[in-house]
Amino acid sequence: MSTFDPVLLFFLFGLAAGLMRSELRLPAAVYELVSMLLLLAIGLKGGIELARQPFGDLALQAIAVIAMGVMLPLVAFPVLRYAGRLRRADAASIAAHYGSVSVATYAVATAYFTSRQIEYEAHMPFLLAVLEIPAIIVGILLARGFSRDMHIGKMAHEVFLGKGILLLIGGLLIGWAAGPEGLTSVKPLFFDLFKGILALFLLEMGLITAGQFGSLRQYGLFLVLFGIGMPLFSAVVGATLGYALGLSLGGTAMLAILAASASYIAVPAAMRISVPEANPTLSLAASLGVTFPFNVLVGIPLYHAMATKLFAVTGG
Amino acid sequence: MKSSMRKLLTIIAETALESVLVKDLEHLGAHGYTITDARGKGSRGTRNAAWGESSNIRLEVVCDAATAETIAAHLQQHYYEHYAMILFLSDVTVLRPEKFCR
Predict the structure, then answer these.
(1) pLDDT one-digit tens code per residue, B12-42
(2) In this complex, do B50 and A277 lie within 8 Å of one another by their Cβ atoms?
(3) Terminal C-alpha separation, chain B
(4) Is the model's pLDDT at B51 over the cut of 70?
(5) What is the pTM of this model?
(6) Containing H/E element for B93?
(7) Alpha-carbon distance A173 to nearest alpha carbon in chain B (angstroms)
(8) Which is it for the CA torsion B36, A14, A216, A264, positive or negative?
(9) Count of A–B CB contacts within 8 Å?
(10) Residue partners of B6: CB distance under 8 A and separation at least 6
């Protein structure tokens, strides 16, 4: 177990407690605070780096990542619709979850990379924020088609002013504006305590994940297979894109992780309002019950190994 | 003590709907409302409020009978099919009826 990061042990602890039907849980307000701190910390860290990056590079990477965010749900949708025989709204909603990202998975990955001293592009949170959005819009279009009664304003509000995205962007901007020296005063809370906060967060994530297993049993094998197969496919896409963009080995692995992760905050909230007929239990069972634990326990080391292999083969 | 009868409309729905519902209520003539966080169990499983997606709100409005019926009909038509929601009406006694009129 020594290769396991302690934060993952917190996740397993929560999972075990949840499976044993313990009454343990983080009070809702605490969970909210902990997720706020994580999002802001990740945003701040990325923001510091943003100022140092040439604008042209950033724009190119953002465009490439947006293209990936559009493409992933378009690949997932037909699989869900025809192989999984899901209703259109459900297939579209799940596809959107898998095209978007999970900040929690990213946070675990940063802990993994930091403890192994793997370098990666520090402006990665910027790409994280960029990748959250396109899949939501694609998902809504897949479910609804282009129709005139689509409320663009409502949709934009839902997409850009969702709590998670707002905090991430806010953190990025503050980090960018304040710079590394300016942030020293808030460093103890956001950066020094990061792992402790992440541990608490993952404890609750374990409990939430355990709660999804019930509905997973109900909806069966297809969701489990999709919940593992889709991130594997997305990771290959992400790693290839990272390599093509000339990212470092760590950055390429990180982009693979971002691609492989499935949203469980921003997308469900947006889908609930914009595609109400989609069953939220299905998409959450897949993204939280299968993909999140798979990614944090198996996926992150696997995608890192994948990127290492890619660099070794191509001599990059 | 001078008192009169009004309707108390209680709605229990998923938290995701909060901002939409509030807009609807104001639009349909409610003068005020009270929202509390809620949890429980129903046809859509346990809503234990462990995190955002599984939490509920309880929305209460005191208004005249006509407004209460308009709101109830609107909610039933727009949200019953796809969202976790129940609502019920009860008679309540209030001291300042003019506060709850249209």
Answers:
(1) 998 888 989 999 999 998 989 999 988 888 7
(2) no
(3) 23
(4) no
(5) 0.89
(6) strand B85-94
(7) 26
(8) positive
(9) 38
(10) B62, B63, B64, B65, B91, B92, B93, B94, B97, B100
Dihedral (CA of A198, A260, A240, A131) sign: negative
CB A33 within 8 A of CB A99: no
Instruction: Tell me the per-residue pLDDT of B1-14, one tens digit each, with 9 for 90 and over.
Output: 677 899 999 999 98
Using the Cβ of B2 and the Cβ atoms of chain A, whether some distance falls under 8 Å is answered with no
Alpha-carbon distance values, B34 to A29, A48, A131, A150 (Å) = 20, 42, 37, 30
Which residue in A25, A28, A276 is closest to B55 by CB distance?
A: A28
Residue B58 φ then ψ, to 5° = -120, 120
| Rg of chain A on CA atoms, in Å | 19
User: Which residue(s) pair with B12 in the sheet?
Assistant: B58, B86
| Residues of A in Cβ contact (< 8 Å) with B79 | 276
Give me the sheet containing B85-94, strands edge to edge.
B34-38, B56-63, B4-14, B85-94
Q: Distance between CA B86 and CA B84 in Å, rounded?
A: 7
Tens-digit pLDDT profile for residues A69-114: 999 999 999 999 999 999 999 999 999 999 999 999 999 999 999 9
Nearest to residue A174, comparing CAs of A39, A32, A31, A33? A39
